[in-house]
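Supplementary Methods, section 5.1.

A reviewer requested that the exact input to the structure prediction be made available. We therefore reproduce it here, unchanged from the version used in the analyses.
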Amino acid sequence: MTHRATLGAAKGQGEAQTMSDETMDRRERWAVILGASSGFGAACGLALAQAGYPIVGVHLDLRGTVAMANETRERLEATGVPVAFHNANAADPDKRAAVIEDIKRRFEERRAQGADPFVAVFLHSLAFGTTLSYIAQDPAEREVNQKQLEMTADVMAHSMVYWARDLFHAGLIAEGSRLFAMTSEGAVKVVPTYGPVSAAKAALEAHCRQLALELMPHGITVNAIRAGVTDTPALRRIPGHEELIAFATARNPGGRMTRPKDVGDAIVALASPKLHWMTGNTIGVDGGELMGARRADG
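The structure derived from this sequence is encoded token-by-token as follows.
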């Protein structure tokens, strides 16, 4: 056998092994989504449900938005997969513990029926924070205070660590699990009044890198997803969001803004067992928006 043929055979064996590994993994792949009722969380939940993933969603909706959360849950249920929604503060330790206990109970029931479930996809998509200036130029303008800064970082960044750790210790994530966190261009760029959220997003990306380092020996990957500017309820809470929408639309090489479905499709693809060697990254899903290019006719 020639050297080239030997290399070809080795390559074929490697590909066959990868295919075999995927075929042999008969585990039931579940998804856990924080911020599941709207925006990126809802879109990713739908994409994953359509791909066959049972969904556990955590969301915080009060009287004004709970109907939207119910509609999201019903859309997921219409795909035919099991769906469990928890209307709870995902940043609260007791609520987190209760959701994890519920997942454990559901998995025990599935094992009793002969299945082997695990959390194949975990998505952190919490968008609740303060958008106030650090230093006000106008005495009548409010400045962010310490409590607001700490709350924003805790909800939008630190909770990623706590959820990943508790899911790991509960045995719910394991080799083959894919952990994702939604970040934004705001982690590296500044916008008036966006400071608290920008700092939280930068911390979130750092947390993802550290979690990737610590979980890779267990076959668990962690990546941040940097979506382009997207018209979501979270965006519309940012002062001056109209200008952000106009600017993003004008400069995106794709000729439009990013849509939640774009991110949902990407999450399904990135959850593939074939991407076991991709971890610790901030992955852009933005149509090239961060490049700052403009359409030829723009």
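The chain has one domain: 27-287. These observations are discussed further in the main text.
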